[in-house]
Amino acid sequence: MPITFSSDEEAMRRALELARRGRGLVEPNPMVGAVVVSPEGELVGEGNHERFGGPHAEVNALRAAGDRAGGGTLYCTLEPCSHFGKTPPCAPLVVSSGIRRVVLGTGDPAPHVAGRGIAILREAGIEVIVGVCEAEARQVVAPFVTLMTLGRPYVHAKWAMSLDGRIATRTGHSQWISNERSRARVHELRGRMDAILVGRGTAVADDPLLTARPPGPRTPLRIVLDSTLQTPIDCQLVQTAQEFPTLVATTSAADAVRREAFLARGVEVELFDAVPSAAADGSASPRVSIPALLSRLGQRKLTNLLVEGGGDVLGAFHDAGLLDEYHVFVAPKIIGGASAKSPLGGFGTEQVMASGLSVVATESLDGDVYINAVQPR
Q1: How far apart are CA 275 and CA 289, in angstroms?
Q2: Quick check: 302 pLDDT over 90?
Q3: Half-sphere exposure of 197 (CA within 13 A, CB side)
Q4: Of the candidates 188, 138, 157, 144, the residue with the CA atom closest to the CA atom of residue 301
Q5: Checking phi first, is residue 172 left (phi over 0); if not, alpha (psi -120 to 50) or beta?
Q6: pLDDT surpasses 80 at 354
Q7: H or E stretch including 308?
Q8: Among the options 27, 46, 58, 136, which is catalytic?
Q9: Taking the CA of residue 75 as centre, how many other CA atoms within 13 Å lie in the half-sphere pointing to its CB?
Q10: pTM
Q11: N or C: which end of the chain has fewer CB within 10 A?
């Protein structure tokens, strides 16, 4: 029985589903999906961008369709490219395929595309419709767009907390707030990241590995924010630096001898200008500039950064308006205590905002609740 679609929206949602298959495999390229429908309304080809450097989604879909694409409609989550990169441009291929109608989720805001692909199609007499399921399409390519337009990674925040909003007890004990299934989901998340970041406090208190277990499609760079380079040499992050890439972001306040000791163990040590940072309690200390760090990571084409904590680090990112997406695991536990730790330190907002985050998904994980939300931009 041939597959047909009842509307442009239905076909685009199939293309979006295909696009998400590339998560963790295509970066720093965007995730893209494509569907080809014949003039009779039948699905005749589909594909997605499967890996970085490989054929784009339109190429895979049109190859699958072959001659049956003639006179049909191409549904693509992102505007076809018009430039030579690791692969030839897609827009001329769409023109030569005989496609008469193209439906796009969103245009490509990257400076090297920015409407040129759409212009090529329209100049060839192809009908082009832009903006079908646009909100979903824009979210799928948000990491790519952030890197291309802002020059920094797309920043994910992750934490597990009790029902009363605590990430640790007043003594600092936190293992484990979330259950085993939630922790497995975190490992899946880590496995599609380009980098994972924690502060020195978390590195000391939890002595984490910050690896994905089992491994995912990517091996993330592990980053510690440590303005004075006081992270213990014998911690797991340093001791496994020869096996898993590790970077300590520090300042000129770091001791030169300690820097050499870290370098000798395979740890990258990058120096940043120290910026003054005042805490809500009135205390002040020099910190690594977060915008400068993100800019440097963007220069390395790192697309997705996961910030795992602790509360001071997450609060600093929040105060700077640099958190793009949230992954929150809420456990049915009560911790209590005025001095128990909360997920976000820093100053926070002075008033409750009229509009909040956009919730992408919620899921029950053996009693825990996973909430995935994005910051509207």
Answers
A1: 6
A2: yes
A3: 27
A4: 144
A5: left
A6: no
A7: strand 304-309
A8: 58
A9: 31
A10: 0.93
A11: N
Residue 282: the pLDDT is 53
Mean pLDDT of the chain: 92
- Please state the length of the chain: 377
Best CA proximity match to 78, nearest among 156, 143, 151: 143
163 C-beta neighbours (distance < 10 Å), count: 12
pLDDT in tens, 221-263: 999 999 999 999 999 999 999 999 999 999 998 999 999 999 9
Closest CA to 221 of 270, 161, 178, 181: 270
Residue 273 corresponds to which tokens in the numbers above?
Answer: 């200008």
Main-chain phi, psi angles of 325, to 5 degrees: -145, 150
Q: CB neighbours of 238 closer than 8 A, spacing ≥ 6?
A: 231, 232, 246, 262, 265, 267
The label of the residue with tokens 């990517």 reads 218
Q: Is 180 a catalytic residue?
A: no
Pairing of strands 154-162, 304-309: parallel
**200 neighbors 224 (Cβ within 8 angstroms):** yes
Instruction: List, in order, residues 6 or more apart from 119 with CB less than 8 Å away.
Output: 82
**CA 3 centroid distance within chain:** 33
Q: Decide: 74 and 34 in contact? Cβ < 8 Å.
A: yes
Please tell me the distance from the alpha carbon of residue 152 to that of residue 145, in angstroms, as a whole number. Answer: 10
Q: For residues 259 and 172, what is the distance between their CA atoms, to the nearest angstrom?
A: 28
User: For residues 213 and 172, what is the distance between their CA atoms, to the nearest angstrom?
Assistant: 25
Which has the higher per-residue pLDDT, 211 or 89?
A: 211
CB 284 within 8 A of CB 277: yes
Quote the CA–CA distance of 73 and 35 in Å, as a whole number: 8
Give the distance, in angstroms, between the CA of residue 13 and the centroid of all CA atoms in the same chain: 21
Place of tokens 């496995």: 191
Q: Give the chain's count of helices (H) and strands (E).
A: 12, 16
Q: Are 90 and 121 in contact (CB under 8 A)?
A: no
